[in-house]
Structure formats: structure tokens, C-alpha cells
Prior knowledge:
The chain is α+β, with helices and mostly antiparallel strands. Helix content is 23%, strand content 29%. α3 (65-83) runs antiparallel to α7 (211-219) and α8 (264-280) runs antiparallel to α9 (290-299).
Amino acid sequence: MDAGSLAHALDRLGVTGRVLYVAAHPDDENTRLLAYLANARHLTAAYLSMTRGGGGQNLIGREQAQLLDVVRTEELLSARRIDGAQQRFTRMRDFGYSKTAEETFRIWGHDEALSDVVWVIRTFQPDVVITRFDENPPNHGHHTASAVLAREAVAAAEDPSRFPEQLGRGAAVWKVTRLLRNVGTFRGEPPPAGSFVLDVGGYDARLGMSYGELAARSRSQHKSQGFGVSGERGPINEAFLTVSGDPPKDDLLDGVALGWDRFGASGAAVGRALDEARAAFEVDRPERAVPGLVKAHRALDALPDGPRTRDARRRIEQTIAAASGMFVRATCDAPVVVPGGPAKVAIEVVMRRPAELRLERALLPGGSKLEVGEALAVLAKKQLTAEVAIPADAPISVPYWLAPSPVPGRNAVSDPKLIGEPKGLAPLPVVVELSASGRTIPVEVALAYAWTDPVEGERLRDVLVAPPATVTPAREAVMFPNDASRDVVVRVRASQDALEGDVVLPAPAGWRVEPAQAHVKLAKSGDEAAVRFAVTPAKGGAAATVAPALDVAGRRFSYREDVIDHPHIPMQVVLQPASVRLVPAALTLPKGAIGYVQGSGDTIPDDLADLGLSVALLDDETLRSGDLSRFHAIVVGIRAYNTRDVLKSAHERLMRYVEEGGTVVVQYNTQSRVGPLATPVGPYPLEIGRGRVTDENAAMKLLVPEHEAFTKPHKIGAADFDGWVQERGLYYAEKWDTRYTPLLAASDPGESPLEGALLFGRYGKGRYVYTGLAFFRQLPAGVPGAYRLFLDLIGP
């Protein structure tokens, strides 16, 4: 920690007050309030997000669903590292926009969601709970549900008859002092009558910025959602309404004992020791705080075990290490290790300030230890090395919330004690045990792999326990047009040297897979091979999901590997169970080339190319001056008009291409108060709204059944809308010129039909289509009807 962060850490240790902020998604949290609570008030503040956000859109890459969950989890953790708060989650999954809390509870499971929020309250033990949203529709159903759950959970957490099984696994009944709602002032409206108003816009001299500036840095970590914001200076008022408990009069935490004296005489002793540490701390001599911290660490032994005691002990240990300038790193010579295999571990320990600390030992993965028993000298580098054996039963490093197969609406978690945690335990922890005045001070780090990038410099990633090799399908779904045979490609990547085994692709009933198994032999860890299976579907057979696997040394492994590498979050190598969907479909393919204008990131160019179509990605120069007439059709990707500035000038060329006989299909773009879309997207006036149909099973009415978009080359009917995933569509056209023909109508339950999902217009000799249908989700998922309709829009 730098001196300012260390001073904040010391102050936080002396404050026992806790605040839990509750909302639904990554980006829903109020970073201004969290930054103020954690740094001005030195409270332990945490944000409980009901979901990890994987049902939304991705502005920076192609990750969707579970992989987008990973991106947004890491974005939240990056935000919390900046604003000083903590992060929690429930098991609930973001299944896309929901229009009612009733639908949300039906999909999540009300009692399961409530149980998770109660668990977080009982294990975090906040004095005050604050919700972002109210319970009044209309609103996103996840938002409304989060407010309902917070209210119900505050009452249930103090009732021992509610969710009593939690009390047997480490939770305790807990009474929250008050439940508040943080009233949104998104449109600049004044605080409502009767609200408690708090100015959170102070300046932090330790950090050199206002809380509005700190909050902007935090919120701008939500880059996958395009939520970068500017810093604010001066007063920032936040308003709160009381939902339950006594309303605050002078402070959000009125009536709450904020110091350690809330635990009586033993707690007061902890507080005095921490006061001693703060008084001794000097910016240039931070080690002077260590004796008081060690005394507080010892005084905690007299307190009952609980969240505050456990967290304080761990934070004191971290602060002792920081105050003594302690550098601890444990690295491995490889980024992955396999169960039962070796791992070469190197540990570096350097104490850079003159604290009186001893290095006693290092505890290694697998249970072995290195005894040292030496006093540390200032700036004297201590290096330890060992080769350890990874236990043969070590679990593969799949994120705990992705390891079991999810159930509809929520992730399955095998260990209920992990509920609420952002990531769970480090795959391979290394603990360096220091000692001071007879106290053991453990410093835990994750075993890491370090390398030097010629541009980025030194980089780190956690070492994972991996199978002997991963078997990653090249595609999540493979289409089989007209029962033709296709190759299914599996990328085999070795996690160990001298890998030898057999890759198999289990054949569904009636299908033929050749070869039955493919032998692979890879010399070094990290080596790859592409294995091709010739797959022939059963005549008239249905779609099937199969799991490619590797048989090696009498064991079978079936895991895929995905790498997520964005500059604002740590690199993530995600291991998950492997699967590929095999989908027969009756499809007629166009013969000409397709031009594709990539937007914020989707896989549709790859999806079309995999069918055998010739697809070219159009760069800015091609859009400005290239020959567009060579394309049978041009498809504009999702949010391209929002993200590709070139379309402001190239739009006229695209429309001229239509006028001269071409086809342009424009997929959804966003239109909002904070992100208005000024560029035309069609040849005639067309306004994009926020209309959507969230029920993926909503009945779809063909308004002009014999239209060419429904008949050439495929005859589209009701069956083509079976099996769609997450939603029908989003950001529909709201108003349009009469020269467009609306082709579809659908609605969510209880709503009037919307007709802006699919508009068709003739312009000159060509065809223009605007569609909000969620093709970007359906095509990678292998939905046959979506392919048939999309090919009709491109045209025969």
C-alpha cells in the first residue's frame, strides 16, 4: 500500500460499522456513496449484486453468458479495489431484461434468492442495509426484485426459524439497525420530502482526489457496458428514505456503536491498541505502527469468533505486511499444473522497512512446508525454492459458481459456504508465516505465473489446476445443413509435458462420428493440436449436445479453456465443462459474398462463415471508398452505429449500395438519454426506441406471411421461433416511415404487441432491413429457425 492507502487501512481497522448496499447487476451500485463510506467514514462497505451481469450486452468483446459473467465479476472487483468497498454476489443469474419482479422470482426461485441474501446479511452482519431501487413498477424486474429481497431478508435474518440450516454452517441471526433506500436522482430531480440528505462530495487529501473523482474511476471499470464517466468535484448530495427501522436524524448510522467498545472491555482493548498503531504511524516510517497492530492482533483473541473479528484479524495481518514494506510473491515455472503432477515453486520475500519480523516458514500447495526461522533484515531478499507434488485428487480450477451445471435461473454451488463470495478460494495458495513478538502473522498469496510482455512489461496470472489437456470445441454449436456431414473441430491443448491420450466425441444415437477416437501426442505443456471428427447426423434426427473428452492414463477429462484478456482486468483463463451442440437444419445458402460491418462484438460473421458463406469484415477504408457492389448483401453488426464513427459518413454510401440493388441488414442499435443516436440508420426516417420482448417463447405473429422475407428461400412459420434463447429481441424501432413494412408482432405477457422488431423497406432497386431480433444470441446457440430467417433477410 502507498502511504495514503495505508493510513486509510489503519483508520478502517478502528471502525466496526458496516453497510451493505443491495442492487441487481454490475453497474447498479452507487460508487460515490461506496467511496465516501469506505474512505471518509472508514466503514466496511460492501456491494451485494444479485447477479454477475452475463445476460447483458458486451461493448468490448465477444464474451456472452458465463464468460461475460467472468468479465463483469472482474470489473466489479477492479472497481472495489479503487473505491475501497467489498463485493458480494448471490447465485442468481442475469437472464436478460425482465419486465416484472414476478417473472424474475419465477425464474430465479424466490426462496432460493431470499436465502442467499439472508446468508450474506448473516455472514457480513451489516448495521445498515441500503437498496438502490424501490419496489414500484415499472422497472427492470431484477431491480424491483432486489429491493423486495432486501426488505424480506432484513426481517428474515433476525428470525432463527427462517433458513435455520444456515445457522449450522457458520452464520448467526443478525438484526439490522435500519433499511434505507438510496433515492436515485438520475434526471436531476430534487430529493423527495422526508428524505435524509448526505453530502458525499468531500476531498480526500490522502488520495489526492474528491470522492466524486474516485467514484468515477471506480465506475469507469464497467467498460463492457460502456459506463465510463467523468469525475465530479464539489458537493454531491445523496438522498435516503427509510424502509424499516428508526429513520436517521444526524447520520446514516445513528444509534450504531462504531468502535470496538461495542464488544465491551475486551473490544475496548482492541480499540486502544489500534489507536496506538495510528498514533505511531508516520508517512515515512510506517513500520512504527507494527507494534500496536501486533498488540491489537493479540487482543482479538479475547473476542468471540465472528465476521468482524475474523475480518479484522486478516486485515491487521495485511496491514502489518504493508507497514513493513513486505513483498511476498510465489511463482511457478508453468501457468498450469495437473493433478498428481509436479510444480516448481519459487518464493521471494523482501522486508523493505525496519520492522522486527521473522520469517518462520512457508506452507506450500499439497501440504508440505519449508522451515526457515530467521530474522528478516531490511532489503535482504530471501528466496526459497521447492518442488511440490500436486495432490492426485486436486479439483480442476473451475470457478466455483460454474463447476456444477446451472439450474434454470441460478448457478449451482456445491459448497453453500461459498455463496456470496466473488471468486472463492485461490486455486493454489502459498502462506508465508511471519512472526512478531510471538504472534504468527500469515501472509497468503496465490501461486502465480509471471512473464514479461514486450509491450506491457511484467504480467501475472494465477496458476490453475488443469486437466492433462483441455478439449475446446472450435464452435459452441455446429450446424448440419440438410443432413450433410460436417467436421467438428476440437482444439487440444496440453497442460503437461509428454501428453499422450485419446480424444473422443461421443456419438448421439443414430449419428456417425469418425474416427471413434483420435490419438494425440504432444511434447510440451502448451502445445496444441486440432482434432477433426467427421460427423454425419441421423436422418431426421434432432439436435444433440455432446461432450468431447480426453482419455489419458485410465481417466477421462472433459474441460474447455477460454482466455479473457482485457487491459482493465487481470487475465482470466476460464476452465469449464466442455460441450458442443450438433444441430441438423434444412438450409438454403446464398451464393454471393457477404460484407459484415462489425459493431461492438458478435460472432455472426463466424457463424455465417461456418456454414460455408464467404464473409468479409469491412474496415473503415472499405466503407469510405471500397467497392461495395461485389457483395450479395451487407450486414451491419450490433451497435455498429453506436461504436463505428465511420458510419456517420459511410451511411450514405451504404444506402446508395441499396439503391443500386444491394441488400443491407442493420441489427439493433441503442438509443438512450445518455447515448442519443443522431446518425440515420435507414434510407427513410426511423426512430429506435427501448422496446423489447423478453420472453423467448413469446408467440410471433407474421404480419405479412407471404412476404419475401418469410418465403425466399425458406418458408418461415411458427416452428422457426422454437428454441430461442434469453429473449426475442431488443431496441426495436419505435417510429418509422410508412415506406417500411413491419413484418412481426409479439408481446410479453400482459402487454400490447410491438411491431418494430423487423422492418423491411424497398429503396431503389434494393432491400433494406432493420431488426432488433436477437440474432447475435440465437446463431451462436445454434437455433435453426433463426438461421433460416436470417438467411431470408440476406436474400437468396
